[in-house]
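Show me a record, fold above all:
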Amino acid sequence: MPLADETLAGAPDARADTYTVLVVDDEDSVRSLFATVLRRNGFEAVEAGSGREALELIASRRISAVLLDSRMPQMDGVEVLRTLRNRPATRTLPVIVVTGEGDVDQRVRALEAGADDYLAKPVSTAELVARVRAQLRGQAEWTRLLEERMHERTTTLSELGRLRPGADLEATARRIVERLSHTPQLDGVTLILFSGDGISVPVGVQGAFAGRLEPGRALPAGLSRHLRDRAGEGPWVERPEHRALPDDKHLELLGDTSTTAFAPLLAQDQLLGVLGISDTTSEGGASRMLALAIDVAAVAAMLLLPQREAWGASANTREQVMRVVDSHAFHPVFQPLRRLDDLRTVSVEALTRFDDGASPQTRFLEAAQAGCGDELERATLESAITEARALPPQIGLSLNVSPRLLVADGDLPDLLHGAGRQVTVELTEHDRIDDYASVRAAITSLGDPVHLSVDDAGAGYASLTHVLALAPHFVKLDRTWVRRIGDDPARQALVAGLVHFAAMTGCSLVAEGIESATELEVLQELGVDLGQGYLLGRPAPQPDLAIPSI
């Protein structure tokens, strides 16, 4: 007798009336008995006397679960199971295998073939119904979860599709990762783009990646090679436990505890980079993340493609500049600034020279355009302050600082005060300032002993706007007004007017580019306070501070 008790009765379960259970057994009496029990408990039951008949029924109608006898002639339960698991449509169909009481080997084979549960004969009717209900509840929960995830992915893709690109690629990438960061259960998002010469650069970073990857800073060469090689093969899941730490320490940048799903960014047959999303969930979570990454990567690639070419050139420049910064391939030189009445040195201006011979003006401009101007400027300032410590303490130090760094770098006051001498911050008139209030506040925060100088006065943006708006301690007259001033009464008149302006406003006028004795003599007669130029001392790592013989 296949049943452990005689009771077939039971109140129908209203929750089960939408489920159809297929009972597969070659014994008519057993099959009929199981079907009757299921019907009495609210299920619809369908019967099949063989494995082949069962497969035909499953292919032709909607089946919610299968109660499958393990031992049948011609095609046994394990063969049926393997067939079902090899078909995409039935890969997750709940299957409960019925085995003999001592049939342990058959039970193991069935579980290995993909059975969700098993029952051992003699079967308890209560256990039979309970196990079927459990499998159907699990399948219903899985379906609900799948629908939630599909809705989640659809919503995310729809919102990304409506996303407007930013002013440049970096801005667009930030918008993409910001949107993805709101996706439930994700704890990190990153967009990494591939550039020339094997460079890989994070352009968008959120969540768990924020402490490991720096936007705009190239990844280590080993990690870059790893991501490029894997991206060429298609989407993949990166798990911490699968990383070879001795030789691949750089992979820890991807996260030491989180599982990360990566998908290539492909657009118009171009591999732009990879999208990575991380989570700390289980294997099921990894599958969900990989599916989401694949879908999102396709949309992200199309958003980034129009701006990719311009970014690529900028990324290469940025990497070159950052190599200069990291290798300290530059050094400061100092040019004396003297009083024109007695030619005594009062301070030196720090200038930068690059080891590869690059023009300082060009290198700083390229760095600013590539988005790494602050890094280069900060590094050269630190170098100048360090090297200036070899100078006599009474000699002041003048440093060129961009308005952007002056406002953005909150550590600048500490850096300048560490010079241990009078420091003058020079702002060039060539740098546009849109918010004078912020610049004035930043200057105030520097405190004493930091002074302000406006460089290149009369030659830059809006002429003397900086001078009028910032009330500096020094105004440096652009060299174009000094050159051949002895032959030009109009230039002499303009400089005389600036001398008067300086006297009335309490600042000192500095003449740049003094290269001849005649220029020096005229400037002295006009009452200019200070000056610098090749006649008074050339830039050098160890400048000549003695009074020159002219």
User: Anything to note?
Assistant: Confidence is low (pLDDT under 50) at residues 1-17. Residues 495 and 526 are 7 Å apart (CA to CA). The first strand starts at residue 20 and ends at 24. The chain is about 40% helix and 20% strand.
